[in-house]
Amino acid sequence: MRDLADVLREYVEEAFSTAAFIVPEELPEPPEPADDWITVVVDFEGDAEGRLILSAEPSMVAAIAANMLGVDEEELPLDRQVDAFKEMGNIVCGNLFSCEHFREADITILPPIQERAPRLRDDITGCREARLGLEGMIEGRVLVILQVRIGVPEGEPA
Amino acid sequence: MGLRVLVVDDSAVMRSMVIRTIRLAGFDIETILEAASGWEAIGTIVQEPVDLVLLDIHMPRMNGEEFLRAIRKKEEFRDLPVLVVTSDRQEARRERILALGADIIHKPFKAAELRDKVAALLGVTTNA
């Protein structure tokens, strides 16, 4: 079975390139988001629980939205840009659950929401975590975090 | 007479993406209607006939699967072409959707994929 970080990289790159025509390069280290970065989170529940976090420079979010919608960045108000970024999170999350780690799992994806900063869920224990930093040549940087617990941890009732 | 298409998705961004793609695909389109939930979509199709529904799955106020189950109970919508546009790739979900007589395309999709799926559902060709 592939490493979770490799799976995450594959699905994020596919979503960015197919839905937003952005082909980002992986950064050697995940970036540290600045205060003006835009963050969306997608929580999921069921046989696997956790959170997918996308946090990006405003220029990256604007580029994603403009490319997804086929309009100029200047035409898009910030809330519309954030909506497109949320949809990107939704796409990545939905696609992730087709990989071998989740194949038999029954998972419910909750609607994406905007957060002030990337923050892991603290209501679940025994999680695995994968972090990924990507950079578009002109679009800017994005941090992707997957926090996931697959199955019921030892010692807890099923 | 052009096609009447209903696009159902709670994300306005996704509706815009799908509408843009379907317009660029070269179909002879008369009208594109929009709905943000399965509930709203049912209200639309009982009032205005449509030739095709492009349907999201995860939506509040009646999700896509519930919408499909509801319309398939009605004689007039039993054969209405429905293409489910979703990022949800769970196999059990896919089987349930196919059993309800709809086809599926996964997000992110390529424009040509959407065009080919729609053409096959409607039995038409495009000008693209």
Secondary structure layout plus pairing:
The complex is a heterodimer of chains A (158) and B (128).
Chain A: H1 4-20, E1 25-26, E2 38-46, E3 48-56, H2 58-69, H3 78-96, E4 107-109, E5 113-115, E6 128-136, E7 140-150
Antiparallel strand pairs in A: 1-6, 2-3, 2-4, 2-5, 3-7, 6-7
Chain B: E1 3-8, H1 12-24, E2 29-35, H2 38-47, E3 52-55, H3 64-72, E4 82-86, H4 91-99, E5 103-106, H5 111-122
What is the count of DSSP helices of chain B, taking H or I runs of 4+ residues?
5
The CATH class assignment of chain B is Alpha Beta
Secondary-structure class of chain A: alpha+beta
Estimated share of beta-strand residues of chain A: 25-35%
CATH architecture of chain B: 3-Layer(aba) Sandwich
**Assigned CATH superfamily of chain A:** CheC-like
Task: Work out the largest interface and the residue count of each chain.
Answer: A-B, 27 and 22 residues
Stretches of chain A where pLDDT is under 50 for at least 5 consecutive residues are none
Q: How many separate domains of chain B?
A: 1
Count of β-strands of chain A: 7
CATH superfamily of chain B, by name, is Response regulator
- Going across the biggest sheet of chain B, name each strand in turn: 2-1-3-4-5
Give the oligomeric state of the chains in this entry, treating copies of one chain as homo and distinct chains as hetero: heterodimer
C-alpha termini separation of chain B: 18 Å
Give a short account of the largest sheet of chain A: 7 strands, antiparallel
Q: Could you name the CATH topology of chain B? A: Rossmann fold
* Number of separate strands of chain B: 5
